[in-house]
C-alpha cells in the first residue's frame, strides 16, 4: 500500500512540475537577506513621459552570497510601464526575468540576475531605469488656443520595493517654475523647477504614499497611435524601408475656435500645439520621401549629418489636443551595411523602429520584413518580448511562389526600444539567377513569336505572278 501511495504522490508532483514548466510561470520568494541600504531616485516629468532613475545600494545581510534580487512595480502603474532596465556599477546591462511572488498577485516583479554575487556583509550599487507612458494627465482636459497646458502627475512618494530601505531620497524635475500644487511631506525643499523629498529613514517593504504634482507642461504630447514599418530586403544591393504613421496630439483638447491668423501673427499663440518635430534616420538613408494621401508634403527639411540623417517634419497644419494626422515616410539603405552572409546563410541586422521624435511613445508597432523569394529556415531574435504574427507571402514583379513575410507587433514602445533585431535565413544563391532568366526567357519567347509571325502568310488570296511570254 505504501509503495502505491508513493507512486501516486510522485506522479502528482511530476505532473505539477510539468504544468508549471509548460505554462512558463516563474515563482520567487522575497529574501530577508537583501536590504536596500540607500536609494537615490530621480523622477523626470519634463516631457510627456515619466522617467524614473533609481540608484540603489544593495546590502547582503545573509550568511551566503546573493546572486539576484527582485525589482517591483506597483499595481496602479504597471499598465503604464513601457520599459524597465537595470545596470551594474560597470554600466553593464543585467538580465531581467519576469516572475511572480505568492501573495502579491497585483504587483509586477522581475528577478534581476547579477553578474557577480554579492558577498556576505558586502554591498553593490546598481541603477534601475523605468519609463512610463500616459502617466501625465491634462488638467484641465480642455484649453483655449492661448492657454498653457497644465498636467497632473500621480506617483509614489517612496521607492516601491519588497525589501527594507534604510534611507532614501527623491528628486522631481519639471520643465517650468509654474507649480500649482504638490505633495508636502517633510522634509522637502522646492527650488525653481525641482522638488527634493527626504531623506526618509527605515521604510518597510511595499510602502506606498501618494505623490501628486500639478504643474505647467507645454511639451509636445504626441502619440503614434499606429506605426506599420515595412522592410523589403533585396540581394541586389538595396533595402527599402517604408513607414505608415498615424499620429495624435494626446494633450489637453482645444476648446473653442482655432484662429490661423492669430497663430501666425503671435509666436506665443498655441503654446501646447505641435508645429514640427525631428525624425532621425540612418546615416546611409537615401531617396527619402514624405507624403500623405494628398501627395508630397513640401514643408519639411533634411539635414545630412555624420552619423544620421535628420528630418524636420512639419505637418500640413499645427496639431492641437485631439487633432490627428497620418503620413508615409520611406527611404532606401544599401544592403551591405545591414545584410551579412556566409555561403547560403544570411543575417539581417536592423533597427526594430526608428527615432520618430524626441520622447516618443507608440501605442502599436507592426514590423513586417519581406525576404527574397526562396528564403527558408527563418529565425528571428529580438532583444525584448514581442508578439509574433503568422508568416505570410508577398507577391511582386517576377515572383512565382511569393516572398516570405515575417511580422511581429509590440505595444507601448518608447525610445529605449530602438534596438537591433537579428534575422537569420537560408537562401540558395543560385536562385538569384531566377529573375534574370525569367526576363531572358520572356524576351526569347517574345522575339520567337515575332519571327514566326512575320514568316507566316495569313492572306486569303494567293498572289498572282506575271507569266513570261
What does this entry look like structurally?
With 469 residues, the chain is mainly β. Residues 18-22 have low confidence and may be disordered. It is built from 3 helices and 33 strands. The chain starts with a helix and ends in a 14-residue tail after the last helix. The strands form 7 sheets. Strands 17, 18, 21, 22, 25, 28, 30, 31 and 32 form a 9-stranded mixed β-sheet that branches. The protein has a 7-stranded mixed β-sheet with strand order 5-8-3-2-12-15-14, with no helix packed on it.
Summarize the structure.
This protein is mainly β. Helices cover 11% and strands 49% of the residues. It has 3 helices and 33 strands.
Highlighted features:
469 residues; mainly beta; seven-stranded mixed beta sheet; 11% helix; flat
Binned, the helix content reads: 10-25%
Strand content: over 45%
**Largest sheet, if any?**
9 strands, mixed
Radius of gyration: 31 Å
State the assembly state of the protein chains.
Answer: single chain
The dominant shape is: flat
Number of strands: 33
The N- to C-terminal Cα distance equals: 128 Å
What is the helix tally?
Answer: 3
Indicate the structural class. mainly beta
Mean pLDDT metric:
89
Low-confidence segments, given as residue ranges, are 18-22
